[in-house]
Design brief:
By secondary structure, the chain is of the alpha/beta class. The protein contains 15 helices and 16 strands.
Length: about 375
C-alpha cells in the first residue's frame, strides 16, 4: 500500500467518475458513501459490521470529540483509529457546521469562533489552527479545513461574508495542516445559493492546490434543485485530478443525481438515523416499518440483499421490533440502510465503468417508483 495520498480516475461516463483514493490505511473506492461515526461510533453498529456492509471510510466529528472525551485524551490512548477499532481511513470534519447548528451563544470573528458547549455550557474556542490541531491529534486520514457554514436561505451579503471568511480560514487551515505524510486536507467551497460566489470560492481554493475539494453549505434546508444547480455551477471550476466531496448529502436520489454531476464522495446521517426510527431504504423505495400494513408481511425487506437483516427476516418481524422499541430493530435496520447505500454506490461504480450510468439510474428510479405492487413510499 502506498505511503502517500493519491487519487486516480479509472472511468468516466458523462460528468460521473469512478476511481480510487489511496492512502496508507487503505483504498477508498469512488463514488464513495461514508457512514457517519459522530462520536467515534456509527450508531448501533460495531466497526466490523460497518465494514461488512461495504464501507471503505467513516466520518467522525471534530466538534463532538473535542468536547467529549477530548482530542488530547484520544491521542494519549493511541489515536482515533485505535480508540474505535477502525483500522481503515477516517475523515474528520472541521467542527464548523456543528458550531453553527448546535453550539450556544457563538461569536464569530476573524480569529475563529467562541461558543458554549451544547453539553455543559462550558466556553470553548475553535480557530482554523485549533481545528487542524484537533484533527491531527485524532490522527484522521482526511482532515477538513475550518469554515463557516450559513443556513439557507440567507441574504447574498451574508453568504458573501461567510464565503470570504472561509477562504481566509482555508489558507490558515492549509498552513496549520503542515506536512503529514499519507494524510490530506480538503478545502470547502462555500457561497450559499449565489452562483458567482460559489464560482469565486471554487477558483480561489483551486489556486491554493488542496489535495481534495468539498462542496459545503448545502443540504441545509434548500430544495434538491438548488443543491444540484450549485453542484453544476461549481464542478467545472474544481481540479479534474482531485476528489470532490459533497458534504452532508443525502437521500439515495441525492447520491444518484450528484454522482451524475461529478461528485466522488458523500456522508450523511440519514441512513443510520432513519434506521433507528424504523425507516428503511431499499430497491423498492422507502419503507416505514412502523406502518400497520407490515404487521403480517412475511416477505423480507429485500431477498436479493447481501445483508442478512434485509434478506433473512420478515418485514412483520421488524415491524414488531420497531413497535416494541427493541434495540435489535435499531441495529438491524441501520445495517439494512448502510448495506443499501453501499450497494447503490457499488452499482454506480460498475455502471460508470461500463458507461451505462444513465441506464442504471433509470432502472433504479423505476424500482423506487414502482415499489412492490405499487407500495413504494417514494424518495422525494
Amino acid at each position: 500500500m502506498t505511503q502517500e495520498f493519491s487519487f486516480a480516475v479509472h472511468a468516466v461516463d458523462g460528468a460521473a467518475r469512478a476511481g480510487a483514493i489511496t492512502m496508507p490505511r487503505g483504498t477508498i473506492r469512488t463514488p464513495a458513501f461514508m457512514p457517519v461515526g459522530t462520536a467515534g461510533t456509527v450508531k448501533a453498529m460495531y466497526p466490523d459490521q460497518v465494514r461488512a456492509q461495504g464501507a471503505d471510510v467513516v466520518l467522525s466529528n471534530t466538534y463532538h470529540l473535542m468536547l467529549r472525551p477530548g482530542a488530547e485524551r484520544i491521542a494519549a490512548l493511541g489515536g482515533l483509529h485505535q480508540f474505535m477499532n477502525w483500522p481503515h481511513p477516517i475523515l474528520t470534519d472541521s467542527g464548523g457546521f456543528q458550531v453553527m447548528s448546535l453550539a450556544k451563544l457563538r461569536k464569530i470573528s476573524e480569529r475563529g469562533v467562541v461558543f458554549q458547549s451544547h453539553i455543559d455550557g462550558a466556553r470553548h474556542e475553535l480557530t482554523p489552527e485549533r481545528s487542524m490541531e484537533i484533527q491531527r491529534l485524532l490522527g484522521s486520514d482526511i482532515q477538513m479545513q475550518f469554515d463557516e457554514c450559513v443556513r439557507l436561505p440567507c441574504s447574498d451579503e451574508e453568504a458573501e461574508r461567510a464565503m470570504r471568511l472561509s477562504l481566509r480560514w482555508g489558507e490558515r487551515s492549509r498552513q496549520a495542516f503542515g506536512v503529514q505524510p499519507g494524510r490530506a486536507i480538503f478545502a470547502i467551497v462555500q457561497g450559499g445559493a449565489v452562483k458567482p460566489l460559489r464560482v469565486e470560492s471554487a477558483r480561489a481554493l483551486a489556486a491554493m492546490d488542496f489535495p481534495g475539494y468539498a462542496i459545503g453549505g448545502l443540504a441545509v434546508g434548500e430544495p434538491q434543485a438548488v443543491m444540484l444547480d450549485m453542484i453544476e455551477t461549481v464542478e467545472p471550476h474544481l481540479p479534474r485530478d482531485k476528489p470532490r466531496y459533497l458534504m452532508g448529502v443525502g437521500t439515495p436520489a441525492d447520491l444518484l443525481e450528484s454522482v451524475m454531476r461529478g461528485v466522488d464522495m458523500f456522508d450523511c446521517v440519514m441512513p443510520t438515523r432513519a434506521g433507528r426510527h424504523g425507516m428503511v431504504f431499499s430497491r423498492f423505495g422507502r419503507l416505514n416499518l412502523r406502518n400497520a400494513r407490515f404487521a403480517e408481511d412475511r416477505r423480507p425487506i429485500d431477498a436479493a440483499s447481501h445483508c442478512p437483516a434485509a434478506r433473512d427476516y420478515a418485514r412483520a418481524y421488524w415491524h414488531h421490533l420497531v413497535k416494541s422499541g427493541e434495540i435489535l430493530a435499531m441495529m438491524g435496520l441501520t445495517a439494512v440502510n448502510l448495506a443499501y447505500y453501499q450497494d447503490l454506490m457499488a452499482g454506480m461504480r460498475r455502471a460508470i465503468a461500463e458507461r451505462r450510468l444513465g441506464e442504471f439510474a433509470a432502472e433504479v428510479k423505476a424500482g423506487w417508483a414502482a415499489g412492490e405492487s405499487g407500495e413504494s413510499e417514494g424518495l422525494n
